[in-house]
Amino acid sequence: MNIVVTGGAGFIGSNFVYYELANHIDDTIICYDALTYAGNLETLDAAMKNPKFKFVKGDITNREEVNALFKNEKPDIVVNFAAESHVDRSINNPDLFLRTNIMGTCVLMDACRKYGIKRYHQVSTDEVYGDLPLERPDLFFTETTNLHTSSPYSASKASADLLVMAYHRTYDLPCSISRCSNNYGPYHFPEKLIPLMIINALHDKKLPVYGAGENVRDWLYVEDHCSAIDLIIRKGKAGDLFNIGGHNEKRNIDVVKIILKALDKPESLIEHVTDRKGHDRRYAIDPTKIKNELGWSPKINFDDGIKKTINWYLTHKEWWEHIISGDYQEYYKTMYGNRAKL
Ligand code: NAD
Ligand code: DAU
Description:
This protein has 342 residues and is α/β, with parallel strands linked by helices. It is built from 13 helices and twelve strands.
């Protein structure tokens, strides 16, 4: 089979490329990526040596480029990871998020209709469900929880999900959707909590925790997300929707303290700063459906996953040093330079 992985030069997409190359050696994997600030060809260095892998630079919002991709590569399956993915950036620049995340999805699915496809899979997020109250640990997101978004990012992802469902119903396009909780692991761009805190701690720089740090995220090691998507595209039915998560809820402040302890750095590096606007309080996925219907379960618990992740950042300094030496410095100044300390 020919599998197009859009956004395959980013964090989860690249892990998925490696997962597919390792687990389905007969399939050809075509990564289609615009190489925005979040896309990185160095991440795909090892894949480039594999004859079953191909990289095509292109933008999912560009119909001509997308149609050429379909004409040339004749994909059986498209897995759409390409997106603007950072909530903080969406608060400063919503327009780009709507264009990439909604229009990009529309353009890809139009090409699927035009050229024919066995499956279009939309990689969505638990953020489409909004948040849960901190004082109700008994509540979880299920596939039937109402969409209730908080940020321009999550609103754009929820809109894309609705569009996917509409294409399935109206045009009978064979689509599926997965909504996963927070991922962590190798190749995570250092604007996100875990890599940012690891890298700041290694530099003895302050660790900027938003507000009191009591917001809860439900962490899943990236490889477990990849194995779930792999099952959905191969065993799930068209029209299916699955939540993905492993019941690994943690308060941000506790994640930061775990990182400091692992790196033998003092907690005095923690700095509480102005909160994110509209900050979601708690995410928590109920993964019962994918467990029961497809037999999926996560393999890596948080204690092991965070050790593996920290070790990866310690042994891949070149990868993140290249990133933080570029435009990232400007980004960091804009996001954190004027943030009041609490
Ligand atoms: P990322 O920001 O690390 O990577 C995004 C990739 O998409 C980059 O390689 C970028 O170059 C590419 N891209 C952006 N705009 C593009 C365009 N117009 N055309 C082609 N390529 C483009 O993102 P990520 O964290 O790997 O997330 C991947 C997907 O998974 C996203 O759809 C996100 O919403 C979803 N998701 C992420 C998480 C998480 O914890 N990171 C959890 C659940 C779902
Ligand atoms: O839940 C899935 C989502 O997880 C994905 O859809 C998004 O693409 C992904 O970015 C992630 O969103 P979050 O907003 O949860 O991730 P982030 O790493 O930005 O933040 C995690 C938590 O840490 C959140 O409560 C905000 C907080 N935070 C984050 C940063 C970057 C801080 O306290 N300080 C920081 O500097």
